[in-house]
Amino acid sequence: MSGNGCRRAGLAQLPRRFDLVVIGGGITGAGIAAEAARTGASVLLVEQGDFAGATSSASSKLVHGGLRYLKSGQWRLTLESVRERNRLLRSRPALVQRLRFLMPVYRGARPGLAAMRVALAIYDLMGRSWDSRAVSAAQALALEPGLAAEGLRGAVLYDDAQTDDARLVLCLLQEAQAAGAAALNYVRVEQVLSAGGGVRGVALRDLADGAGGEVEADLVIDAAGVQATSLPGAPAGGPALRPLRGSHLLFSLERLPVRRAVSWLHPRDRRPVFVYPWQGVALYGTTDVDHAGGPVRMSAAEADYLLEGLARQFPRLGLGLDDALASFAGVRPVVAGGKADPSAESRESAIWSAPGWVGATGGKLTTFRVTARQVLAEAARQFPRLAPAPQYAAAAPALQHRGEPFRQWLRQAGDSEREAVAGTPYCWGELRWSARCEAVLHLDDLLLRRTRIGLLLAHGGAGLLERVGMICREEMAWDQPRWQQERARYLVLWRAQHAPHPERDA
Ligand SMILES: Cc1cc2nc3c(=O)[nH]c(=O)nc-3n(C[C@H](O)[C@H](O)[C@H](O)COP(=O)(O)OP(=O)(O)OC[C@H]3O[C@@H](n4cnc5c(N)ncnc54)[C@H](O)[C@@H]3O)c2cc1C
To answer: Which stretches of 2-73 are DSSP H helices?
Structure first.
């Protein structure tokens, strides 16, 4: 995004010196940039793909304490996350919404109802809210009629929250920008530059036009997710990472009718899995498997695992991959702890530093502000002026979701802009606004992250492309060959990464 919030600026328009350069435009980098810009520092964030183009658009989209972390004794992480969840619910109501969970409990299952109630009492205590309660089997079935009834002893209900992960990243970047930061997508750090025993800047390549350039900075922050610790020229000292892939399937709510989140233990390995209504579809996940590199997409084995879990909990629905609308997969940047079971690895973040350099990886979407403030506290050891503000930033209400300028524009726009994109919670004006104002460079930026239409409609919304094409041609001056190229790129990418059938469509 450029200084005026519209269009994408190029490398050529950038100053050659910043106080701080952040590498990575996922939630970690965006959170750091937003917090750093508040200190008055000059900040540049660069992202080699689209903003939130990697893990931060492929999470389960839960803003949660993580009930399961209690079981593995990660008390601090759970407490921190629950507090963050509550802060975000209060400060970003347009983006983070309460989500009621129902967890059925079956005869002979461990943990049983009594243990679940104790765990939830602790969870409630941590969140200082008393939302959880137990219900009978009959009540559970009345609440969620599709549940497997045999052996059902009852259920527990509790609250967490959900968001749109890609939009959250974009909002943070817009806040950073409003405070004076620059943020560029499709700009890669090719080399970390050092001199006199410390990092002094980065060499950049603008992937949109091929231009290269160097930028100097007092401090460079590595927020490159799974690529953190492997940037060319970066100082050593980061943790060993264990990239863990997680995949999800999306179904229409007609095919998988849930009214709230339902979470249960997968019959194969007793890991918690869940399904919940998100943007008008049912979002179901997730897996937790070592990612050996290569394309990030759901494997056939993960698809089998997910379907097996669904068949156990919703046996009457008879769901298969043909019923799914789409899939998506992401890779968690998890700090390697040497555990045999991927799910037993800690989800805490790691922060490390060297002269002119701070790195941060691991952690969760939910705790982005905690990470950002820890990173700035570490940065302040080298440059005291970068110390984080004593108070958490209040989210700027005007920037939540698409913000007030969008709402004003939409009010006076024609009816066709307010028309709903059928089968989605979006209106056509949102596509136009994003194309005009939200640093869209490729069609997939628009359909997979500025809006999530490509995940909500069968075949990635291919049936809408003609009308989308008109908007792109008008707003981004794409000529016919460019549009054809973008259309083909989007459809190939969708089939490779988001089609529900891993083998048939790859
Ligand atoms: C399946 C799954 C489910 C999850 N569910 C949840 C959840 O429900 N709740 C929750 O709180 N957390 C969840 N998480 C965790 C959360 O999504 C991640 O912790 C978080 O998104 C990581 O953000 P990040 O910014 O560190 O990494 P990323 O989002 O991957 O961002 C790093 C960015 O750095 C960029 N980059 C790398 N190298 C360069 C370079 N040389 N130059 C420029 N840019 C570069 C990459 O392109 C990338 O976009 C989940 C994760 C996964 C995978």
So the answer is: 27-37, 67-71
For ligand 1, whether the C-beta of 185 sits within 6 Å is no
Q: Which atom number of ligand 1 is nearest to the Cα of residue 245?
A: 53
Ligand 1 neighbour 349 (Cβ under 6 A): no
H/E run at residue 98: strand 97-106
Handedness of CA 355, 361, 366, 367 (dihedral sign): negative
Residue 223 CB–ligand 1 contact under 6 Å: yes
Condensed to tens digits (0 to 9), the pLDDT of residues 25-78 reads 999 999 999 999 999 999 999 999 999 999 999 999 999 987 777 777 778 888
Distance in Å, CA 332 to ligand 1 centroid: 7
**CA 250/CA 485 separation, integer angstroms:** 27
Domains of the chain listed by start with CATH number: 11-56+166-240+345-386 (3.50.50.60), 98-161+243-341 (3.30.9.10), 402-497 (1.10.8)
311: Cβ–Cβ under 8 A, 6 or more apart, which residues? 318, 319
Element (H, E) at 22: strand 17-23
* Residue showing tokens 């996922």: 26
Closest atom, ligand 1, to C-alpha of 332: 53
User: What is the pLDDT confidence band of residue 400, given thresholds at 50, 70 and 90?
Assistant: low
Predicted structure pTM score:
0.96
